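Task: encode each sequence below as C-alpha cells.

Item 1
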Amino acid sequence: MKRFIYFALRPLSSIGRRLSRRFTKTGIFVIGSIFISAIVGLDTNQTMAYQVFIFLFGLITISVIASWLFPPPLLAMRRTVPRLGTVDVPVACRVFVRNESVRTRDGLFLIEQGPMSGNRKALFQEVALPPLAPNCEQEVDMEITPLSRGRLQLSGVSIGGTDPVGLCKSFSHSSMPHSLLVLPRRYPLPPLKLPGTRRYQKGGVSLAFSVGDSEEFISLRDYRPGDPLRHIYWKGFAKNDKPIVKEYQDEFFVRHALVLDTFQETGTDDIFEDAVSVATSFACSITTQESLLDLMFVGAEAFCFTSGRGVANTDRMLEILASVQPCRDKSFRSLLPLVLGRASALSGCICILLSWDKDRQDLVMNLKSLGIPLLALVLSTPGLQPAVDPQCADYVRIVETGRIAEGLSGL
C-alpha cells in the first residue's frame, strides 16, 4: 500500500518541483486560481468567475513572455566543491560571483542546475544574492544534499531572477562541471568487540595488497637443506660462491572479513542500498590500526579489498562501497570460493546478507564449522522475516529495512 501511494503521488511531486522552479509562490497561487476560476466559471450565465480567469491568464502570460525577453544577466562565477559527500548530509559549496558590469545587480539568486543525467539525485538550495556593486566579487555558500550514493555529476550554476510582475522566474546558465563522490549513509553502532585471535598471515602484511608470495624480509643467511629455491639470493650466491637465502618473518595479527551480499535477482534496490549502508557503518566502526579488514563482494568479478595496518585507509574502502552495484547475472555460490579460500587467515567474519536461503545458510555454516567467530546480519522487509534456527540466534540477526538504526543498536 505504501509503495502504491508513493508511485501515485510521485507525478504530483515532480509537477510541484517544476512549478516551484519556474514560478514564485505568488505565481503558483495565480496558477491555482486560474484552474479554480476555470472550473467555477464554466457556466458564464451563472457566474462572473470567467472574468477572473481571463485577467489572471493574461497576467501569467505577460509574466512568462517577460521572463523570456529579459533573462537575468550572466555574471562571472567560479566555485569549489568537496571531493566527497554522504547521503542525506548537506554538502557545503562555495560560489564566487563577480559583477563585471557598470550597473549594480540586485534581486538575483543562485541555484544548482543539477545532475547532468537529469535524474533527481540531490536537493539543491536556492540562495539569494546580495546586491552586487560594479566590479565587486561576493562569496556565497550553497548546500547540496545528495539523495543517493555514487558519482554525482554537477553541470553548473544558474543565476535566477523574477520578471517585473514577480510571478515567473528566469535563468541564465553558467556551465561549471564538477564531480562529487557520494558515500553511503552510515548508522551509529555500539562499541564493537569482535572476537577472534591472531592468525598466521602467509607473506606478512605485504601480502594483503600484493598478488603472489611477497613476504616480510628480515635478513640473509646461509642455505639450509629444504629451503625453497625462490628464497635464494642469487647476487649473494655469485659473490660468495655459496648459496645464500633470504629469511622472512612469520606474521601473526588479527584479520576480519566484511562480506557484502550483492546478489539481487528481483525486487527494488532499497534493501540492497540498506545492505551497503550497514557495510559502510561497520567499515567505519572497526578499528584497523592493529588489524586488517577484508571487504569481499562480487560485482563484474570477485573483489577483495583490504585496509588496515598501513595497507590502505578506510576512506578508500568507503569509496569502493559508494560505487558497488547489485550483481544480477551470477548466483550467490560464486562468492563462496572467495570467502572460504581466505578462511584460514581470518580471525572473525561479518556477513551482510540480503536473504536467508540455502546458499547463504551454507556459507554461514561452513564458516562456523571452521571455528571462525561470526556475525551474520540478514536484511528483511517488515512482515517478511525469514525463519532462523534458534541454534543460530547467537550469530544470526534479522534487521528490518526502515528500522536499520534500531536493529544495529541492539548488537
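Item 2
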Amino acid sequence: MRISMVSEHASPLAVLGGVDAGGQNVYVAALSSALAARGHTVTVYTRRDNPDLPDRVPFADGAEVVHVDAGPTEPVPKDQLLPYIPALADGIARDWVDARPDIVHAHFWMSGVAALDAARRDGLRSPATGLGVPVVQTFHALGAVKRRHQGADDTSPPDREWLEPLVGRTVKAVIATCSDEAFELKNLGVDQSRIAVVPCGVDLNLFHPDGPRERARRRRIAVIGRLVPRKGGDLVIRALAQLADDGVGDLELLFVGGGSGESTLGHDPEARRLMALAQELGVGEQVRMRGQLPQASMPALLRSVDAVVCAPWYEPFGIVPLEAMACGVPVVAAAVGGLIDTVVNGVTGLHVPPRDPQAIAAALAALLGDPQRAANLGRAGRARVEARYSWDRIGRDVHRVYRRVGASSSAINPGRQQGVSL
C-alpha cells in the first residue's frame, strides 16, 4: 500500500520539546516507521521551514519526508499557518501526480484541510471509480476542547471553529487516540460509525526498565514535555512546596523540555515563570530545568526518577506516560483525556483531579512513602505497554482502518468526492 501522511507543522525529523514540537512528531515518525516495516511505502508531507532542507529525506527503510514550499521558509507558529495551507495542498497534489497514494492520513486539522483539498483534484481520481484519494484523519487535539480550557488565551484562528468539524465530517474515517476524544468527535457531528479509537504507541526497544540510569543525589520526580502553561508545571511546583512543608524535603523536581540544554532558563518565558514561582515558594533549590534532551537519553533519565508527573489541564493523548511506564516508572496523572485510558488508577499509577496541587502532593507522598507499592505499579505499567501499546500493534490497528476505508471507497458509485476549501 502506498500511504501519504500529511503533517503540516510536525515533521518526524524535528527536535522535540519546542512549543510546536512534541507528541505529534513522535507519533507521525513512529507510525510511519511501523507501517513501512510492514512492507508499505510511506511518504510524509510537511511544510518547509528552513531553506536548506532537502526536498526529500529518507528517515526509515520505506519511509521518507517531503518538504513542501508553503509560506516563508522559516519557523511559523502552527496557529498562524492557515493562510499557507492552499499552497501546501498544491505542492502535495503535484507530487502525487507521479505516485498517486492508495490512502492519505492527515494529522492535525489544518493537515486535514490540505489533504482533502489535494485529494479531490481531477487528475488524482481513480480510473476505476472516479473517486479521489480516500483521506483518514487524526486530530491530535480538538479546537473545541482547547477553547474550553484556554478561553481567551486560545490562539487558534477563528476559522478553526467551523473548518475542523467539517474535516471530521468529510473524511472517510477519523482515528481518535482515546475514548474521551471519540466522545468529543461525536459532539462535533462526526458519525460514530466512522470513528475508530487507536491509541499512540511507545518504542519498547528504546524504553525499558533495564539499562543505564542517571546518577541522582536525592529522590527525583520529573515533568517531561513542552514548557507551556497548559501542561501544569506550576501545579507540580506547588505540590513540591506542599511536600516540603510536610517534611518531604530530600527531593528534586526535573523539568525536561523547552529550549536547548539548561540554558533554556534564560530564554524560555515559561521556564522563567516556573522558576520564579519555585523561588517564591521556597523550593527553587529543588527545581532543575534540564531543557531538551535527545530521545536516546530519555530512558536513562526515566530510570533515575521515582515518579513522573503529568498534570495537564487537558491532554488529547500524552506519550510521556507510556514512556515512563515502559521504563517501569509509576505515573501520577491528571484524570483527563487520554491519560484516563493509558494510566490505570491504582494499577500502573495514580490519578488525581485536574488542577489540584494538593492531590498531586498526596499521590507523590503515597508513592515515595511506599517504595514497594511504587515498584509494583512500575512493573504493571511495563506489562500494560507490552500488551497494548507497541508500535507494531498500533501500526497493525491503523492498517485495519486503512483497509476498511479502502474497501468502502471502492464500493461507492463513482461521483465527485466532497472537498474542503478555504
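Check on item 2: Residues 373 and 398 are 35 Å apart (CA to CA). The radius of gyration is 22 Å.
End of task.
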